[in-house]
């Protein structure tokens, strides 16, 4: 659903940079003898020469299109060079292209806030760079302006008969232009320089759109390709949108666009101008109605996010026609391949970028043999992500089983799987070092609240069963419970030689203790890990399956006096709603953590640099005497001085 965001104060200049026939360029850089030849990249497939996924501009001249198969492309362009996408684990391996995309991102990001939008496109917020140029070296003061900038397409610029480059030079150097257009002129020069730099350093060409917001910049970058740039002046917006088919606008390609066409008779984005905002809101809701009213006027407040790395990692494979998977063992085989790749990629991300993924999602495209027309879709399923190939494989398999049960229904019809994918999402940074551990665990909690809460796992992902409620309520319960313990760090008692227990007392903490805010969050991590693990299990169990109450409390036992809390856990499992749980937990005051009961495999799932520290922390007997309070994070978990 589109999200309406009010336009920010002040002028902005945003560029959308899109690589030209990207995979083809990557292949041509690898094999320079392909340069200048009609070339396409095909996805490995024995059927009719495989499907084309990228088509070079030389091949496009012959009418070769991405929708074609290799054999069809050869018919229209007999000399076409068909390059197979690299294959690993029986499926396309896009690592080469991903890394090539990163090379470009690292060049572009030097000039402004940069958002990597896909494998080959980025948004850049050039407002600061353009303002700086305007104040220090405005275009009219420049001795030379790169030809690349002079070749810009300026929408709405009338031809004055002096040749287009001269025309553009005049536009770039106008001193009577308003501030907004002057910023655009500066940005056009900056983008041209960046594109030259990308070309020189990577050998790749790209195209760009330059405008006052992301939406217009994206539209513009596709208008003149390859290796060109297009500028959208404010005065040209109305004409640009007047004839733009609704389906071409981002977010209008699906149901919303179809509804605009069929219900309101809107064909072009500009047709929306005739509808008052109230009418659009009445029909599509306040948010979407406001968004539609604004985009009709070229207004969009969407910010360029600062993101150089992908938002998620996904591995998928299609099994078209007769290749559809029809047995659990074949699904398992492919899930294992996909999960192996996913695991490798999230591990690389963790090692290289210190980022950790929190959610694993399985999507499948499925059909039933005896069903005519559109039946129930295979539901996508998610669960908290556990690191390690075997664990991801195990969880993905359980997600699949759960989805399949919902899909086939009680009749146990024969089924086929036409596509499978696994995705790791909700990727958060983890700062390294001791001080960062608490932040990391905080993150885990935040994640727990949002992703394990109803927001993160929506009902598309979870069938409405008691397990859903549990997923929504348990982490809320834990976090509610633990917030106070973070603020009021506790005494830790060694209750016996064999059985070390953390007793976290949140009653009447002193201000001094309150200063240690958040560091106790390491405990929350274990709770979250516990609940995470349970969530996986819960998600797979049927609604009527017994709920693992005692297990889930194995290392986070309630104080025996806390009958109320114990009851709550049970209520929770009995589907009580989260509000009730939250309210009542406010009264709960004490916790015990039994170190012996911590599952060591939980530690294995932590980032390496943190593992070491946590292991040290768990070796209490040796270190209790050795470490002084106040030296590091372990201080908070050692027995208090009597
Ligand atoms: P696009 O940017 O959509 O296209 P492109 O870069 O090939 O060509 P253009 O110059 O028109 O922008 O996609 C980027 C790459 O993503 C593309 O080179 C191959 C890959 N891709 C697929 O694998 N499958 C697809 O369906 C699409 C659209 C792209």
Task: Give your account of this protein's structure.
It comes from Dioscorea alata (Purple yam). Its EC number is 2.7.7.7. This is DNA polymerase eta protein. Keywords: Nucleotidyltransferase, Transferase. It is an enzyme of class 2 (transferase). The chain is α+β, with helices and mostly antiparallel strands and 642 residues long. The chain is built from 25 helices and 18 strands. The strands form 5 sheets. Strands 7-8-1-10-11-9 form a 6-stranded mixed beta sheet. It has a 4-stranded antiparallel beta sheet with strand order 12-15-13-14. Strands 3-2-4 form a 3-stranded mixed beta sheet. Helix 15 crosses helix 19, helix 17 packs parallel to helix 22 and helix 21 runs antiparallel to helix 22. The protein is globular and about 75 Å long. The C terminus is likely disordered. Thymidine-5'-triphosphate binds next to strand 1, helix 1 and strand 3. Thymidine-5'-triphosphate (TTP) binds next to strand 1, helix 1 and strand 3.
Mean pLDDT: 73
Count of individual beta strands: 18
Pairing-aware structural class of the strands and helices?
Answer: alpha+beta
Biggest sheet architecture: 6 strands, mixed
How many individual helices?
A: 25
Helicity level: 40-55%
Distance between the termini: 58 Å
Rounded to the nearest angstrom, the radius of gyration is 29 Å
How would you write the strand order of the largest sheet? 7-8-1-10-11-9
What is the global morphology?
Answer: globular
What is the beta-strand fraction? 15-25%
Listed once per kind, the bound small molecules are:
thymidine-5'-triphosphate
Poorly predicted tracts of residues:
434-603, 619-642
């Amino acid at each position: 659903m589109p999200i309406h965001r009010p336009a920010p104060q002040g002028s902005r200049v945003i560029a959308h940079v899109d690589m030209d026939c990207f995979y083809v360029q990557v292949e041509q850089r690898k094999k320079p003898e392909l340069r200048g030849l009609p070339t396409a990249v095909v996805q490995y497939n024995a059927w009719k020469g495989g499907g084309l996924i990228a088509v070079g501009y030389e091949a496009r001249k012959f009418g070769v299109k991405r929708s074609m198969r290799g054999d069809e492309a050869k018919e229209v362009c007999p000399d076409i060079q068909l390059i197979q996408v690299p294959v690993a684990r029986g499926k396309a391996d896009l690592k080469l292209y991903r890394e090539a995309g990163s090379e470009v991102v690292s060049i572009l990001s030097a000039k402004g806030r940069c958002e990597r939008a896909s494998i080959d496109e980025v948004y850049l917020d050039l407002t600061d760079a353009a303002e700086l140029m305007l104040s220090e070296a405005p275009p009219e003061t420049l001795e030379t302006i790169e030809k690349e900038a002079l070749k810009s397409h300026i929408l709405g610029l009338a031809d004055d008969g002096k040749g287009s480059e001269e025309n553009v030079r005049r536009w770039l150097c106008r001193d009577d232009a308003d501030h907004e257009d002057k910023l655009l002129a500066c940005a056009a020069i900056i983008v041209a320089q960046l594109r030259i730099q990308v070309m020189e350093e990577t050998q790749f060409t790209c195209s760009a759109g330059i405008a006052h917001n992301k939406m217009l910049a994206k539209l513009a970058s596709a208008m003149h390709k390859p290796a060109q740039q297009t500028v959208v002046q404010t005065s040209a917006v109305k004409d640009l949108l007047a004839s733009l088919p609704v389906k071409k606008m981002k977010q209008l390609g699906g149901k919303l666009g179809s509804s605009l066409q069929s219900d309101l008779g809107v064909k072009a984005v500009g047709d929306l101008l005739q509808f008052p905002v109230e009418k659009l809101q009445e029909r599509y809701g306040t948010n979407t109605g406001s968004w539609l009213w604004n985009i009709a006027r070229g207004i969009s407040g969407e910010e360029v996010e600062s993101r150089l790395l992908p938002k998620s990692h996904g591995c998928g494979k299609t099994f078209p026609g007769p290749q559809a998977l029809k047995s659990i063992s074949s699904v398992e085989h492919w899930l294992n391949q996909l999960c192996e790749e996913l695991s490798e990629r999230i591990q690389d991300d963790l090692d290289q970028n210190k980022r950790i993924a929190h959610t694993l999602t399985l999507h499948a495209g499925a059909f039933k043999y005896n069903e005519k027309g559109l039946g129930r879709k295979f539901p996508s399923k998610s669960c908290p992500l556990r690191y390690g190939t075997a664990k991801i494989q195990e969880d993905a398999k359980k997600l699949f089983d759960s989805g399949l049960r919902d899909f086939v229904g009680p009749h146990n019809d024969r089924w086929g799987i036409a596509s499978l994918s696994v995705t790791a999402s909700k990727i958060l940074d983890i700062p390294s070092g001791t001080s960062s551990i608490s932040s990391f665990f905080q993150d885990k909690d935040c994640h727990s609240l949002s992703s394990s809460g109803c927001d993160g796992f929506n009902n598309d992902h979870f069938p409405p069963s008691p397990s859903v409620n549990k997923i929504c309520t348990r982490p809320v319960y834990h976090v509610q419970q633990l917030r106070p313990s973070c603020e009021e760090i506790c005494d830790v008692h060694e209750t016996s030689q064999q059985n070390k227990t953390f007793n976290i007392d949140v009653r009447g903490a002193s201000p001094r203790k309150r200063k240690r805010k958040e560091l106790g969050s390491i405990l929350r991590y274990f709770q979250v890990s516990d609940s995470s693990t349970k969530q996986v299990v819960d998600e797979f169990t049927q609604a009527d399956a017994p709920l693992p109450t005692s297990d889930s409390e194995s290392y986070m036992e309630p104080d025996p006096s806390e009958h109320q809390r114990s009851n709550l856990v049970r209520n929770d499992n009995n589907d009580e709603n989260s509000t009730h749980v939250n309210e009542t937990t406010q009264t709960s005051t004490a916790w015990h953590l039994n170190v012996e009961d911590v599952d060591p495999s939980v530690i294995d799932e932590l980032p390496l640099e943190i593992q070491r520290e946590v292991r040290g922390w768990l070796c209490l007997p040796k270190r209790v005497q050795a470490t002084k309070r106040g030296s590091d994070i372990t201080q908070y978990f050692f027995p208090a001085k009597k």
